[in-house]
Amino acid sequence: MVNHICEPISSNQFASCSSARVGQGGGGAPLTSDTSPTAVNRTLPTRLPNSAYRSREYLTEKEVDRLIEAARKRGRNGARDAAAILLAYRHGLRATELCTLRWAQIDLSHGRLHVNRAKGGIESVHALHGPELRALRP
User: Does pTM surpass 0.90?
Assistant: First the structure.
């Protein structure tokens, strides 16, 4: 652990600082002009944009179909998981919106999905089509 010992010039400024190691015999060397807080480059390393790491930010329809098939074959809740992936993809649902869906929000007879948007979004009604209705019907 390092303690910084500074001598104040005025109420908000410090003239010189030195560091001392606590619990290890003390005696850290004072900061020089090369390592003083104003001489050290304190900018954070910049992160490259996502486009530099991958060419696109979304899944293709073929990739989503493969994901749905894999979910359907896996575990005892495969049909539920596949339906959740399909709804999230088709309606652009966030994970929170998907997890908070209730059966009362789904109107199978009229093919409607009532979505309560997260992050201050406006509630909306989405139309449910063939594959989604088949996935949701018991």
Answer: no
